[in-house]
Amino acid sequence: RIRGFEALLRWQHPTLGQIPPTEFIPIAEETDLIHSIGHWVVKTACLAAARWPRDLRVSVNLSVVQLRNKALLDGIVVALAEAGLDPRRLEVEITETVLISNFEETISLLQSLISLSVTVALDDFGTGYSSLTYLRKLPLSRLKIDRSFVQDMLTDADCAAIVRSLVELAHELRIEVTAEGVETPEQLDYLRCVRCDEAQGYLIGKPVRISEIPGIAAEPVGQELDT
Fold it and tell me: What is the pLDDT of residues 5-17, one digit of tens each?
């Protein structure tokens, strides 16, 4: 069954066409435009999710620059209130690189979000300077295994062992696990065997416009593993 959707930003330029976030987000961060863009994303995501079935969550990504902004927390509170969205249905995603330079400040902010009942996910786990300290100290609800491990786990015994071990470790710490980049039924079968909680990727569903989600959410996925 579908458990939620991740909000991904795409810029549809009138003359240049679709511009990926890898090209414009760094510029937005350098010019501090990321704060207004980020607030718009959170607000839009909350308003959209408020119209979905009540058991679906929406996930938004936060960059290191956004986390340094003291107005971020207030902006999220306002977005939730204006949308009338249950905070438990909003999940914020951070990456390991966010934690390197301002670990203690990030923990403080995340604790504040947790106090609002917003959930926190550690995205792309395994691609940065992975540390078990993050799993022990951060108030995480979810760990997202990077697609690089998922794509190679059926042909690389080490990747398979890493995926299996991460799922086991996270569950011992009462953290749910989402596998990213799932593209084949065989990958999904392996994830089901190691008791991974959720799967995300093109096998489950390709990116869609926000207006298409209500119709998609009403359709059965046809997979036993949550998506």
Answer: 999 998 889 999 9
